[in-house]
Write a structure and sequence with these properties.
Blueprint: H1 2-31, H2 49-55, H3 58-90, H4 96-108, H5 111-122, H6 128-134, H7 150-175, H8 179-187, H9 192-203, H10 205-219, H11 224-229, H12 241-251, H13 255-280
Length: about 290
């Protein structure tokens, strides 16, 4: 009877998990082996035809490269800033609650609002960035219209929004550390940097693993900001993988090819997660 009661408790969550996670993933995998059907031409099985088309798609490789550079630029920077902010606001500094709130505020802002704020920053001539540069005699620059700067501009915006969110996890982890560790380190004459590197950071590795996986997922699911800021331009210089999937599915109405791209995205995220667990888990110390 206890087993039946347990399964009854699990059933609602299991239905939601299967209906909104497992079934869509399986259906997407199946659709990637078919062509896109129309009213006069039904879909047909084409095997790995979509994957062969993907391998020859120059836009896909450009978007994938953009996304990898975007991940490399945002993930380590966001985590490093989150740790730095958490260590700082964990100390007894004046107006500590206000500083914490200021760091966390970008996290609670809607994504569309964040995009509009940074659109004002990056607007040529009248934007805040160009207004500041004008004080030093620098010329105006189209930050979001230049292929050389648009991706970096997106990175800055995402780091600004995500660092405060990751800070909360590190702050909670820091407050759970025994204060005796720092006291013992001071008695032994260890510097603050030595204490952080040898004691504090190793104990933060479980949190770092959690944040790292979430930061990786976030770096591959950016869509909202691109709608407002660049729409993937100029010349796909700021287009990321999930936004390209959206374009293929809802602008070009090629759902089969979009399913293929989605399968590749899921496989890429799964592979990155496995690598992260394999490399970072060895350094995780649970208390």
């Amino acid at each position: 009877m206890k087993h039946v009661y347990g399964w009854l408790l699990l059933t609602p969550a299991a239905i939601l998990l299967v209906g909104f996670t497992h079934y869509p993933a399986a259906a997407t995998l199946v659709d990637s082996f078919f062509s896109t059907g129309t009213a006069i031409r039904p879909s047909r099985f084409i095997g790995f035809g979509n994957y062969a088309l993907l391998a020859e798609d120059p836009i896909f490789w450009k978007v994938l490269g953009n996304n990898l550079w975007f991940a490399l630029g945002t993930i380590p920077t966001s985590i490093a800033l989150a740790i730095l902010m958490a260590v700082w606001v964990n100390d007894r500094l004046p107006a500590r609650a206000l500083v914490r709130m200021a760091y966390f505020t970008p996290t609670v802002l809607p994504m569309i609002a964040v995009a509009n704020i940074w659109l004002f920053f990056y607007t040529p001539q009248i934007g805040l960035v160009d207004q500041f540069r004008a004080l030093f005699g620098a010329p105006s620059h189209n930050w979001l219209g230049d292929p050389g700067t648009v991706l970096a501009c997106l990175m800055v915006m995402v780091i600004w929004k995500e660092a405060g969110f990751f800070m909360i996890f590190y702050l909670a982890a820091l407050q759970s550390l025994p204060p005796e560790l720092e006291e013992a380190a001071k008695i032994e004459g260890a510097s603050r940097w030595h204490f952080f590197r040898r004691v504090m950071f190793p104990l933060l590795m479980p949190t770092t693993l959690f944040v790292l996986v979430n930061a990786t997922i976030n770096s591959f699911k950016l869509v909202d900001h691109l709608f407002i800021l660049t729409k993937g331009g100029p010349d796909n210089a700021s287009s990321l993988l999930l936004y390209y999937i959206y374009q293929v599915a809802f602008s070009f109405f090629d759902t089969a090819y979009a399913s293929t791209l989605t399968v590749v995205l899921l496989a890429l995220l799964a592979g990155l997660a496995l690598v992260q667990f394999h490399l970072v888990e060895k350094r995780v110390h649970y208390r």
